[in-house]
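Allow me, if you will, to draw on your knowledge of protein folds for a short while. A protein sequence and the structure tokens that stand for its backbone fold form the material at issue. I would ask you to consider whether the tokens describe a fold that such a sequence might reasonably adopt. Thank you for your consideration; the sequence and its tokens are set out here:
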Amino acid sequence: MRRIRGEEDMAILQRDLDAVTNWSEKNNMKLHEEKFELMRHNGQKKDNEELELLNNLPFMAEFNSYKTSAGMLEPVAVLRDLGIRVSLDFRWSIHIRRLAECGRRRAAWVFSVFGTRQTIAMLTLYKSLVRSLLEYCCPLWNPVKIGDIQALERVQLSFTARIEDFAGMNWQRLQHPKITSLQRRREWYIILHMWKLRQKQVSDDLNIRFSDDGRLGFTAKVPSLTKKATDAHQTIFDESFAVMGPKLWNTLPAVLNREEDFSKFKVRLSRYLSSFLDEPPVKGYVRRNTNSILDWTKDGGWSQTKAMAQLEV
């Protein structure tokens, strides 16, 4: 990765782009250059707004852009890669709102096609057709903003409200053994991925370090950002998997984080997380905290005795 600081860096990037396209043509692997997209990020929001203003000036697009055989690469504010929408400010709100919209449409299709409202059938349809859509690649974009969490939880609430056995129920439906909040499930997925990182079963691109701290078991080092970073960058960094993953992992007791078998770890982790209250933030309901495991361990919505008892089952 190299920062573009001036015309010389732009020329180098253009040469690299030309080299890749030429190589692909010589090896009969022609790329879809019309699908190439350009996204610029210039630090703070104010800088990005000034950059967008400059790009709209006459001749600036040609001077400050890159070319392919398909034409000029125009800067975009949002791009889609492997189903994930990345925005210029490195936030996930646009992607999450789009997911919630797709989830509502999918749920509407299910209710229009299937006449039954029986619990087993509807839960099966929800998990396979709706929830799977809302959880795609969720460790990457796991939201922290309350509004984003609420947007996703509303999809599950509206769907389960129409299931036969849950009619008229609010958060009591989360006491069903097969239903938990989407927020809790995302943290479950993050911890599972952390286990795979510790066991070196997946690539550790973030260079997350684990150490054996005796009675605490295996703990993960929470990385820190440079002191020169802006507040906006610090917030984005704190919400990323690189920080949230180690923090969530470090809430696990030693008897759990030392588990070597993945199947057993999944089962024991589910039992452990069931010892926490599950009250996701939803508009219209008073909440005690953000419902993250990180908050419940601080706010008393968790019993260590109950948690350990769950692990011993």
